[in-house]
## 1
Amino acid sequence: MQHKILIVEDEIDIAELIRVNLSTLSLETEHCSNGSVAQRKILSENYSLVILDIMLPGKNGLDICKAVRSKKPAQAIMMLTAKSSETDQIVGLELGADDYMSKPFSIPSLLARVRVQLRRVELLSDKQSYPDKQKSISIGRLSVDQINHTVHLDKKQIDLTSLEFDLLSFFVQRPDQVFSRSNLLDKVWGYEHDGYEHTVNSNINRLRRKLKWRDNEQIIQTVWGVGYKLSTRSCL
């Protein structure tokens, strides 16, 4: 599968650094420095991954992420943030970014994260191409269809990003088992790294909001001091 990556970054030196290093993975890249132009390109063209800076002329990365998520929920997005801007990191993840990198970032870490995102894209493509190898899992009123990449709760379809789907799919295959944030980073994201707990927290929070179907009932529950689990009882 040939991948094309859009680098949305107005600092030319950083964009070129990313482009040169992605070329070592034999990846096709395209660069855009204006946010408004980038949003139009993302919505009209097909990119395996968008590497998206937050501070951009025309339109900022947070607004772009929100707009893209509403139109193309499966689009893989990695955001670039200033190291000191924890708020931007959290907001970006809450708006639907799959991952983030803080500037300055290490090249090996960037390449590892890009590979993780591309593996997820390839897995989704394989599911669509070979649906007979997949399965559907139901727990009470929750149904996760890995053939069509859809989720239904109490007969209502729930729209998830590809990463949210992967996270929920991981949980439904292991109901009532508790996993720490580092476990989830390793098993779902494909890496473990101190300081990236926000990535897990934000995706858990988004899943909870989307899967909430009864007052004060959370399907994904916190086990204090340990981690998270999917509660079979809450799906009934």
## 2
Amino acid sequence: MAIEASVTLRSEHVPSVGRDRIRLLQAVAREGSITAGAKAVGLTYKAAWDALDAMANLFGQPLLETRTGGRSGGGARLTPTGVRVIEAFGRLEAEMTRALRGLEPDLAGSGISPFSLFSGFFMRTSARNALRGTITAIRSDTLAAEIAVAVSDDKTIYALITKESLRELGLCVGREAIVLIKASFVVIAPGNDPPAVSVRNCLRGVVRRCEQSAVSAEVVLDIGGGKTIAATITARSAETLGLSPGKPACALFDAAHVIVAID
């Protein structure tokens, strides 16, 4: 599989800028107008303006010069800063791609890809549970989509996201993804047979550890395949359920509480 890097630029309190927004900037410059550029990359006029504003906020100066009305009509063209941003972004991705390809021989046979290595180094999240897997199925309607992500040979996690998020993230079957679940969203049921409830996700496993304080407890469940999932529950619940290491248990959580992230 050919490897290439995808760069995302961030700044505190400012939306991130990645390849999709750089493509928008290129399309606006190529088409000569924001309306045509937005259409070329499949965005609404408003979404395009929001993205362009975000880029101007991130870089601290305008990337486009716009004109309105007049005999020749409105239009847009890159500022010198806009030209430099596109060129620098392309060089940055090319350099990162070269570095990633250089890592392949060192990772051969390890089961770790350069993609997962880099995301493991750099991804920061407040969610206690972050599991990498592969999208195996997508079901969608006009508003929402259910994404199935296989995180091991026999464990699949389901996420419910909006149709807009499905499109913006470019999710498709076969693509790698990361599922994020806050520990406080996970319910633990003892034994291998969970109660009949409406939650979409039920992961069977074995309690690896249960750490308690006076009020709360963190239960870590080994779900196989080298993967674990953590839950934050009350200390009284942990004692009542008898969640000691080695005991079978199930982790239950709703699909709407699962966030899908991509590299």
## 3
Amino acid sequence: MSNSSSSSVVAITAPQPSGRLAVMTAYAVAAAAIPIPILPDRMLIRVRGAVVHDIVSRHGLSLTSDARAMLADPDSEQRTRMVKVAETVVRQVLRRLKPLGAINSVSRGLEVFALGLLLERYITEVRPTGQVRMHLEEARKVRGMIDRSALRAFSPSLKPGQTIMADGLEDLRDELTRWVDAILLTSAGLPSYLERRLEAAFDQVVGETPGSRDG
């Protein structure tokens, strides 16, 4: 597996996130917005569990019940930090946005998107072949890498590969403009720029995690 660097050039050839993952992300955003105690978390657990099951089953794998519970749990040690970072980004990009209550719903959607995208990447590019069952310890390790990657994706120091636009023109937008464009384009689906940032962050985290390629 090769890691992205600041000098790399990436052509936009990777497929967009699957329609199923996009819909599940929307479900998570909607569930988090429900103003009923307890219900949102229960629905998020169901959504995240379904995403995990869909991905592992498509690759001919199975999950133990405790492994699924670990990946489906909507809360983690990184969550509070991620929400704070998201609030900071939104305030900097859209200073007049009021109220900021929607951030919780959006961050829940981002977490589901990151879970689906990076679990797929882990299985296809990092996980050793030949093991058909994922147990709790592996799920805990993967969950930690995904959560750290989602948080790192917001870091200004992260430099995903330089983008070459579909018509061959170089993307010369500054970082602030990219974030504004990303927010404005969410109605058309999560932008590929966010996907590339998550993947670049995940590649870094995998490289820093001892035994990340051990099942």
## 4
Amino acid sequence: MKDSERSHSEKTRVLIVDDHPLVRESLKRLVQGEPDLLVCGEAEDCGQAMAIISTAHPHLVVLDLNLKNSNGTELIRDLREHHPKVLVLVFSTYDELVYAERAIRAGAHGYITKQEAPHRVLGAIRQILKGEIYWSEKAATWVASKIARPSGSNDGFYEGILTEREMQVFELIGTGKNIRQIAASLHIDSSTVETYRARIKEKLNFENSSDLLQHAIRWSNSPKI
């Protein structure tokens, strides 16, 4: 039997979770172009994704960390708890040197950015389906360098204290975005961003917003390897 004649039941089922329809469509086209892969569903938030997983039973979920009214990391943890056999590839715009390790620790099996070429995305999918962890050479080098550092090193200090969402807000502050722009990027209210800013200042013992901004800019511009 030719690959093109294989039944849907024989194909690896892939669920795409992203809050941008154009991204979902582009990724769907890429995956559907492979004779042994099948997109079994699409979702824009955690609730939709979990509902589809219960009926479509995907083998692999490709998801963004920034979802509509929800957080991709929360979905990863839910999958690890309720559907541990489902593989997860994070497909995100966020800097892999900041978020890849966190995603893997949450339960993902790979991390790739949306800036990568289509063949690399397919390569990541293939590697995960073989039972391996996927991340770029750059991210792997970064993680290895962290392991090799003395335990007293301050590198990774922020990630160890701030939550996933707080890290996202902190990084966006460092890129120069204002409250409204951060809210739009994360699909949350401006008041919620203000709450996260206050928590960050408290957790990191910053005296004022100026201190917060300076440290966020320094973090955003600092080399990660």
